[in-house]
Specification:
The complex is a heterodimer of chains A (343) and B (297). Chain A has 343 residues and is an alpha/beta fold. Chain A has 2 domains: 5-259, P-loop containing nucleotide triphosphate hydrolases (Rossmann fold, 3-Layer(aba) Sandwich); 260-343, no CATH class. Helices cover 30% and strands 24% of the residues of chain A. Chain A has helices at residues 56-63, 86-92, 113-123, 129-142, 159-171, 189-206, 217-223, 241-246, 251-257, 299-303, 325-330, and strands spanning 5-20, 25-41, 45-49, 71-76, 79-80, 96-99, 177-181, 209-214, 226-231, 234-240, 270-272, 319-320, 340-342. Chain A has a 7-stranded mixed beta sheet, sandwiched between helices. In chain A, helix 3 crosses helix 4 (129-142) and helix 3 (113-123) runs parallel beside helix 5 (159-171). In chain B, helix 5 crosses helix 7 and helix 10 runs parallel beside helix 11. Chain B is built from 12 helices and no strands. Chain B has a single domain, classed as MetI-like fold (Orthogonal Bundle). By secondary structure, chain B is mostly helical. Chain B has helices at 2-13, 17-31, 33-55, 87-123, 125-140, 143-154, 158-185, 188-195, 200-208, 213-236, 248-255, 264-291. Chain B is elongated and about 75 Å long. Classes of the chains: A alpha/beta (343), B mainly alpha (297). The A-B interface holds A 24, 61, 64, 66, 89-91, 93-94, 96-98, 100-102, 105-110, 112, 119-120, 123-124, 137, 147-148, 150-153, 155-156, 166, 169, 173 and B 5, 8-9, 12-13, 17-18, 129, 187-189, 191-198, 202, 206-207, 210-211.
Chain lengths: 343, 297
């Protein structure tokens, strides 16, 4: 079966200028996202994971042009969104929607729920005015709310319910791709599961594609088909869920995965503790971004930027940006330091 | 089924959440006793401005030289001035003028200032810099001096005084609204509207303006007090209302020469100005506490 490319990000960069001095000159840039490329196929769920500040949310926002990307191309069904004018982009916005992290900040507190959904449909001209009311009730029921709650205001709903309203708003314009920006991070675990299941059901029902941005590896493992691991504005590793979780190749991915808590107090496991802090994205390290903290770092890592490629012994579509994937796997390269903690 | 839904939704109407919000506001406002008193005094002056002139029979501009400079008495409650005019009648007739000058100038300054502030806060960057530096220039002048300069350029009349006070109210509104806009604009629902393709016009007027309204209302109330004071000051200096208009500041100015023998000529309009300004200030502070419970700890 041929997979259809829905979204193709090519060389995306997002550099935020830092203004300083008396005249507000640009002194430097925060390189939040620095030259990343990936493809999302129709009907799948791709997750972007990474620590806070690695540029995962910025990537989502740049795709939607909530912040204009500095450079690069974002192809949606073959059209480069980044090169469209603002008014042309407006037409495409119907196909790409976003669900936000904070359910308390993502709905205008002065609008009733039916106003919120009605306005979304009005902006994109989805339905004639007279049919909208019926559709609003339908949408609320789709996301697991009661149609009779349509005229209530946001403050009368709980966080989980509000998140469902946010999902209903995104659905109201019949999108093809939904970017979930930490969509369940602010909810408690039982509600998280409900919302994730809802997203799952909606995907089956409407054939949606998700770009799921999260720092929560447990959630990512549950929902994704493929996973992108980001560090300091660069993609470190990309692959299907199974490859990433069971057979990580990049030292950063390994360290990240070792941080997932295991609900078994008796199980001994290795916990890789990385040395130092994440360097500043204003002045990121040369060569491989991770070399300042990587236990396997060599001279080459300081100089050459590793390409994101498929190395020997990796499944198809599984790529890692590391010079020494084979050497580390074969045990030829020993770590320079080993700070592990067992729990 | 559809009938059932209709029935349910009309049943929901009885419970109006917006009404609940206002009830909460009223509850907090009532608790603040001084604000309540301020509100009542403000209301009192508004009623006097509307109905006073109908109830007071004496002509505020009728002179009676034989009865000049009379102290307060049963016949002339607030006494008479140097032309024998009834001060009580002049105060009552001047109330409307005072309030209108306050309201209209604040409305003018408010509309312009809110627009400037919201545009500066929403677009940021160069637009923000240019607008806000302009506001800083206006703010650098002491208020009365700026109004004085504008009135001297335009010429002394009530209309020009209103315009002058309006202009000098602009930066206060622009600053407050810019600040609130900056914080609202960062919220995710604004991003959601942008992701839906909403126009800037829709976002600014439908989603930002209603959410920055409370500081605007508070600021407007406080600004009315300042405007009344400035108007009185300008009239006192002879640049606002021209005689024989019964304007409080002008009355104060007229009484200056008779301060020693007839202190009531300056005391009465002075007290009237103080009362209105104080009432609006206390009322405004109370509104602020009631509209923003978080600021009240």
């Amino acid at each position: 079966m041929e997979k259809k490319e829905l979204l193709k990000v090519d060389g995306l960069k997002q550099h935020f200028p830092i203004k300083g001095g008396f005249f507000g000159r640009t002194v430097n840039h925060v390189k939040a996202v620095d030259d990343i490329s990936f493809t999302v196929y129709e009907g799948e769920t791709v997750s972007i994971v990474g620590e806070s500040g690695c540029g995962k949310s910025t990537t989502g926002r740049a795709i939607l042009r909530l912040e204009e990307p500095s450079d690069g191309k974002v192809y949606f069904e073959g059209t480069d969104l980044a090169s469209l004018s603002k008014s042309e982009m407006r037409k495409y916005r119907k196909d790409l929607q976003i669900i936000f992290q904070d359910p308390y900040a993502s709905i205008n507190p002065r609008q009733s729920i039916s106003d919120v959904l009605n306005e979304a449909m009005e902006i994109q001209n989805v339905l004639p005015r007279k049919d909208r009311r019926k559709r609003i009730i339908e949408l609320l029921e789709t996301v697991g709310l009661n149609g009779s709650q349509a005229d209530r205001y946001p403050h009368e709903f709980s966080g989980g319910q509000r998140q469902r309203i946010g999902i209903a708003r995104a659905l109201s314009v019949n999108p093809k791709l939904i970017i979930c920006d930490e969509a369940v991070s602010a909810l408690d675990v039982s509600i998280q599961a409900q919302v994730l299941n809802l997203l799952d059901e909606l995907q089956d029902e409407y054939g949606l594609t998700y770009l799921f941005i999260s720092h929560d590896l447990g959630v990512v493992r549950h929902i994704s088909d493929r996973v992108i691991v980001m560090y300091l504005g660069k993609i470190m590793e990309i692959g299907d869920k199974k490859s990433i979780f069971d057979n990580p190749k990049h030292p950063y991915t390994k360290a990240l995965l070792s941080a997932i808590p295991v609900p078994d107090p008796d199980r001994e496991r290795e916990h890789i503790v990385l040395r130092g802090d994440v360097p500043s994205p204003i002045d990121p390290p040369t060569g491989c971004r991770f070399h300042t903290r990587c236990p396997f770092a060599q001279e080459k890592c300081r100089v050459d930027v590793p390409e994101l490629i498929e190395h020997d012994g990796m499944e198809q579509g599984h790529e890692a940006a590391c010079h020494f994937v084979e050497e580390i796997a074969s045990g030829q390269l020993k770590p320079n330091y080993m700070e592990t903690a067992s729990f | 089924m559809s009938e059932q839904t209709a029935g349910a939704s009309s049943g929901e109407k009885a419970y109006n959440p917006r009404l609940e919000l206002y009830k909460g506001f009223w509850k907090r406002f009532k608790k603040n006793k001084s604000a309540l008193v301020g509100g009542i005094v403000v209301l009192f002056f508004i009623l006097v401005a509307i109905f006073g002139p109908m109830l007071v029979s004496a002509d505020p501009n009728a002179t009676d030289i034989t009865n000049k400079l009379q102290p307060p008495s049963a016949e002339h409650w607030f006494g008479t001035d140097n032309y024998g005019r009834d001060i009580f009648s002049r105060i009552i007739h001047g109330t409307g003028l005072t309030l209108i000058v306050g309201f209209v100038s604040v409305v003018i300054g408010g509309i312009v200032g809110v627009l400037f502030g919201i545009i500066a806060g929403y677009y940021g960057g160069k637009v923000d810099t240019i607008i806000m530096r302009l506001m800083d220039i206006l703010l650098a002048f002491p208020g009365i001096l700026l109004a004085l300069a504008i009135v001297s350029v335009l010429g002394g009349s009530i209309q020009n005084m209103i315009i002058a006070i309006g202009i000098f109210s602009v930066p206060a509104f622009a600053r407050i609204v810019r600040g609130s806009t900056l914080s609202v604009r960062k919220l995710e629902y604004i991003d959601a509207m942008r992701a839906l393709g909403a126009s800037d016009f829709r976002i600014i007027f439908k989603h930002i303006l209603p959410n920055v309204l409370s500081p605007i209302i508070v600021q407007a109330t406080l600004r009315i007090a300042t405007a009344v004071l400035t108007a009185a000051g300008l009239s006192f200096l002879g640049l606002g209302a021209q005689p024989p208009t019964p304007e409080w500041g002008a009355m104060l100015s007229a009484g200056r020469s008779y301060m020693a023998e007839s202190p009531h000529m300056i005391l009465i309009p002075g007290i009237a100005i103080v009362l209105v300004v104080l009432a609006f200030n206390i009322f405004g502070d109370g509104l602020r506490d009631a509209l923003d419970p978080k600021a009240n700890k």
